[in-house]
Amino acid sequence: MIGFVVSGVRGTQNVSERIAVSHSPVVTQSAARNSGRYARLSLNMTATVPETVSGTIAPPRTIGADLMVPKDQVEAKKAEAETLPSVSLSEVDLQWVHVLSEGWAAPLKGFMREDEYVQTLHFNAIRQADGSFSNQSVPIVLDVSDEKKKELEGCSAFALRDESGKAIAILRNPEFYVHNKEERCARMFGLVDARHPYAEIIYNGGEWLVGGDIEVLERVRYNDGLDEYRLTPQELEAEYVKRGADAVFFFQLRNPIHNGHALLMTSTREELMKRGFKNPVLVVHQIGGKVKGDDVPLRERMMQNQAVITEGVLDPKSTILGIFPSPMLYAGPTEVQWHAKARLNAGCQFYIVGRDPAGMKHPATDEDMYDPWHGKKALTFAPGLENLEILPFRVAAYDKKAQGMAFFDPSRAEDFLFISGTKMRKYAASGETPPNGFMAPSAWKILVDYYASKQ
After folding, report:
1. What pLDDT is recorded for position 320?
2. In the predicted model, what is the mean pLDDT of residues 348-357?
3. Rounded to an integer, what is the distance from CA 173 to the centroid of its chain?
4. How far is residue 245's CA from residue 78's CA, in Å, rounded to a whole number?
5. What are the backbone angles phi and psi of residue 271, rounded to the nearest 5°?
6. Per-residue pLDDT tens for 235-273?
7. Cα separations (Å) of 264 from 74, 257, 260?
8. Measuring CA to CA, how many Å separate 307 from each of 12, 303, 424, 438?
9. Is residue 308 within 8 Å of residue 321, measured between CB atoms?
10. What pLDDT sits at residue 61?
11. Measured between alpha carbons, how far is 350 from 5 in angstroms, rounded to an integer?
12. 328 close to 291: Cβ distance less than 8 angstroms
């Protein structure tokens, strides 16, 4: 369940009108499909045009506009928030405020109004004022109860407060509409079973949704020792420049990193260098929001990922470790579009998607909920993601002869061992050592210690 993104960032110029693109073999199939329409971007994004080493103009980087209150207005807005009625945010609500605040969901300006919600559910995209489409495959909505709706009706603004009661944001000009929970689940997941982890959240939510623009009062912090990894799209771009990157690729995951993942990442860097880039930089991007109960917690995943980098399995000089603030929805091909779109708002343009991205077992049958390759197909045709090229995916497995992770060779299939996430968790829970070369030793010890602590 993996995906990573690559973005050319060498040489930039401002975009204010359509650009005539001179195609070369370096230009992607996605670029050809765009036929010079790269300058037609969604609203509320900052755009630059990366230039490849060969001099060909590549599709533009887009950095999503954040929703933070300007520093010189913060104190006045905080004072205003104390005079307003308020809504208490759940853990997941706060994570969505975090996502919105930093521009990952741009051009959204806040929690979805009904027109945006309907387009998201039925089209996986929202039409912009200029006629273009911005991909938005998952609803970003705020639910409230009947009682809270009655309390807030008629007000022009209300404060959003975290679980401690602190005002996080102000929502302006609220619009209330019915929360049809079963329709939402059916459209997102293809099921209405409340045992699905995010469906359970939906069914436990309020009877109404409320949309409106938000003004975020200060940066969302969790004070969990991991905030240094929560880099915004703007901070990531600054880091690319600092490291002298001429290409940037993301690896998105919600699991620990084994050497098969590392092989995919390092081989991608090598392929980029063959295409002419001199210093591709990798961003390892863990899902930072709520995950289901049997997933490894964020702290242990980050410790394990850091150990992989420290051991040199991934090059520390060309690897950035970060956290993506979104909760996990387990919505398969629908959700993988969201993961890709959010990374586009951090300047990314090429995407490799693996088997069964954002998938899980069906709660009733214990079989895969989604076709394992539909995520890749969905990205190929997704509206609003025309600037993405879907790159080839190679399957890695444990090579018993070589005693290490290698790309699967069907001509000698008997030499390969596929170690699933379930099997990996069983190894760690029992304290059993996996085959030599499967994972960096110090990284494996972190998993073993985690599972031992649960017994």
Report:
1. 94
2. 79
3. 28
4. 39
5. -65, -40
6. 999 998 899 988 888 888 999 999 999 998 899 889 888
7. 44, 11, 6
8. 35, 6, 17, 14
9. no
10. 57
11. 5
12. yes
Q: What is the pLDDT of residue 12?
A: 34
Count of all residues that appear for the chain in the document:
455
Q: CB under 8 Å to 199, separation ≥6 — which residues?
A: 185, 189, 191, 192, 193
First-to-last alpha carbon distance for the chain, in angstroms, is 27
**Pairing mode of beta strands 142-144, 208-216:** antiparallel
What is the maximum span of the chain, computed from C-alpha positions, in angstroms? 71
Which tokens sit at 296? Answer: 């490894």
- How far apart, in whole angstroms, are the C-alpha atoms of residue 371 and residue 101? 33
Residue type, 69: V
How far is residue 442's CA from residue 311's CA, in Å, rounded to a whole number? 8
pLDDT over threshold 70, residue 317: yes
Q: Label residue 407 exposed, middle or buried (CB < 10 Å: 0-12, 13-18, 19+).
A: middle
pTM reported for the whole predicted model: 0.88
Q: Distance between CA 433 and CA 70 in Å, rounded? A: 52
Q: Verify cis geometry, omega within 30 degrees of 0, for the bond prior to 107.
A: yes
In 3-state terms, what secondary structure has residue 116? Answer: helix
Residue 88 has pLDDT above 80, yes or no: yes
Place of tokens 């998993």: 447
